[in-house]
Amino acid sequence: MIIRRLAVLLAALAFVAPACAADALRLAIQATGTTAWELAVVSAFSLDQEAGLELKVNELASTEAGKIALVSDGADVIVSDWLFVARERAGGGKLTLYPVSTAIGAVMTRAQEIKFVADLSGKKLGVAGGALDKSWLLLKAYALEKGVDLEKTSTIVYGAPPLLAAKAEQGELDAVLEFWNFALDLEAKGFRAAIDMREVEQALGAKAAPVVTGYVFDEAFAASHRQELSRFFAMMRKARALIATNDEAWRAAAARISTKDKTALDLYRKHYVEGAPTGSLAEQEADAATLFQTLEKLGGETLVGAAKTFDPKTFYRDEP
Questions:
Q1: 5 SS3 class
Q2: What 8-state DSSP symbol labels residue 21?
Q3: Same domain, 82 and 127
Q4: Residue from 211, 195, 181, 76 nearest 142 by CA
Q5: 103-134 residue pLDDT tens
Q6: Cα-based distances in Å from 271 to 166, 191, 278
Q7: What is the extent of the structural domain holding 264?
Q8: Same domain, 61 and 134
Q9: Which of 207, 221, 248, 291 is buried deepest, with most CB atoms within 10 A?
């Protein structure tokens, strides 16, 4: 009788154990990015266990480090933009992107006389991210359509986002084109958005709020881990929904944000929620393709590599 019971127990364990085994995913993320917020919520609410996933997270200082980790097989999934994916595909890589956020920055200022792009003429403008930053190229294209060549009429200062934010606060810049989170920090300190980059995107032909960033991974990995990725996407969508609606979840996310200023945190939450992608995949791809044409024209091979048109496989379309 005892032997028979042990046999039944062992058979039951053999059946249950594989179902309970978690599938591993290696993530390389920016320590200060919104994915870190979501993963804090995943941990706080045990969403990874619910999804049957074991997340091996490597927090990095920059998005560039994440790109290196992905292409060197040091990570399965990173967060980056579709332009990086398009460039890699043009060079023979097989990366693809699952849309995550439409959040984009703005031209921030305290100067009341700066309201339109033409008002930047004769001014000292800080540009975060460098001469080939997507937002800067889009702003230049928008200005040219208005008859303004910012590189000729303005004094352009390139630099890291936190450095330029500090210079703007000190009055060393008349305006600054900042990433969305730094723009919100400045807004909480009395700055305003003179030019919203979402409006610029739409002026250049985008129909809605275009996707900016997403989860990036290799096509071969996706083919062999289709179900795991699907569960991962669903888990992260649930974390995003909790951040939007559940104050306990928001507190877990906010713990990963350096500022403790309530005004700034309220702005972070509001813009984060507004940054959720909308529209169909076809609409998202159409907007990206439209903006790609502008970026390719201004940035050329230095920006987009050998790509001349937007590769439709840039966006992942094989989720179950």
A1: helix
A2: P
A3: no
A4: 195
A5: 999 999 999 999 999 999 999 999 998 898 99
A6: 22, 16, 14
A7: 22-95+212-279+308-314
A8: no
A9: 291
